[in-house]
Design goal:
The complex is a heterodimer. Chain A is mostly beta strands. Chain A has no helices and 15 strands. In chain B, strands 5-6-8-10-9-7 form a 6-stranded parallel beta barrel. Chain B has one domain. Helix content of chain B is about 15%, strand content about 45%. The chains are: A mainly beta, B mainly beta. Chains A and B meet through strand 14 and strand 15 of A and strand 9, strand 10 and helix 2 of B. Strand 15 of chain A pairs antiparallel with strand 10 of chain B.
Chain lengths: ~130, ~170
């Protein structure tokens, strides 16, 4: 019997228990083996007015130029890119990028932030290597 | 050369073994390498890696490379290097944060940030949001209304106006 071929995987972090796990490359959702809760692995894209209670993913959240996300919380494990308008608490385990057209109001927790010239940012910031880990 | 221009080119340094307490106004560049308590106004401020500043800063450009505690108002640009550790409220036209910098505080950044230097007031303003227009249509066929207009007895009893079934 030929040896079982290993499926290529990618490491992700559970946004419930912050545990590390590996999922198949093409997986769009998974269940955390540590806390047994469901996970969204897709990148979330907000193209126009997006109203939701919470935008949470193990991937990235991208708010496009004409996008507008007025939500309770945005939580992304691989970072948040904002080019549009956001009014939410943002928790990111990756870099937060604010483009020049970004208009953001809310609290931030992230290890790094990039603010382009022209971006408007207002809120409480907690930025640093030890934050949101 | 104008005295002011000369002053702008000169650099005022608070050395690593110096400790300053009070208010300081500098026309040109100020480098803080020691300890600073109070408030300072300058054209450009550099907080060095060995500095311990516990003050309010108001300047065109502020570069923080060390530890700073206090509010910062940067009319042009605020730069936090990878060794920066800032705790305090920040108002700046532009913000540059290097990887590894630590910042905890309220932040107002943008080209119009200085015109709204009151963070509390700015908080209350919501993002310009297109409000949905709600138009209320008059309810036609309301039984109460029709009773009043048709001269029928206003008993409120719908049975009173019931039409007898025709054969």
């Amino acid at each position: 019997m030929p040896p079982k071929e290993s499926v290529p995987g990618r490491p992700v972090r559970c946004y419930h228990c912050k545990g590390e796990l590996t999922v198949p490359m093409a997986a769009r959702s998974a269940s955390c083996p540590l806390c047994h809760r469901g996970l969204i692995l897709d990148d979330l894209l907000v193209r126009d007015s997006g109203f939701a209670g919470k935008l949470t993913t193990c991937g990235k959240v991208l708010i496009e130029k004409k996008g507008r996300a007025v939500t309770r919380q945005i939580e992304a494990c691989q970072g948040v890119d904002i080019l549009g308008a956001v009014e939410a608490k943002v928790v990111s385990y990756g870099t937060v990028y604010l483009g020049k057209t970004a208009r953001v109001k809310g609290d931030f927790e992230a290890p790094e932030i990039v603010v382009e010239r022209g971006a408007v940012l207002e809120g409480m910031l907690r930025i640093g290597p030890g934050v949101a880990r | 050369m104008d005295v002011r221009e000369t002053a702008r080119e000169q650099v005022t340094v608070i050395g690593p073994d110096a400790r300053f307490k009070g208010e300081l106004v500098v026309e040109g560049v100020l480098k803080v390498l020691g300890s600073f308590d109070g408030a300072l106004k300058a054209g450009e401020v550099h907080i060095g890696p060995s500095a311990h500043s516990n003050c309010a800063i108001e300047a065109n450009t502020v570069v923080v490379d060390g530890k700073h505690q206090g509010d910062i108002v940067a009319r042009e640009c605020l730069q936090l290097t990878n060794k920066a550790n800032v705790q305090g409220d920040v108002t700046a036209a532009e913000l540059a944060v290097a990887q590894g910098a630590t910042f905890v505080g309220r932040c107002v950044v943008g080209p119009d940030a200085l015109s709204t230097t009151r963070p509390a007031a700015a908080q209350s303003e919501r993002l310009a949001e297109p409000k949905p227009t709600i138009t209320r249509k008059p309810r036609t066929g309301d039984w109460m209304e029709s009773n009043g207009h048709n001269g029928a007895p206003q008993t409120g009893d719908w049975l009173a106006t019931a039409v007898p079934p025709s054969r």
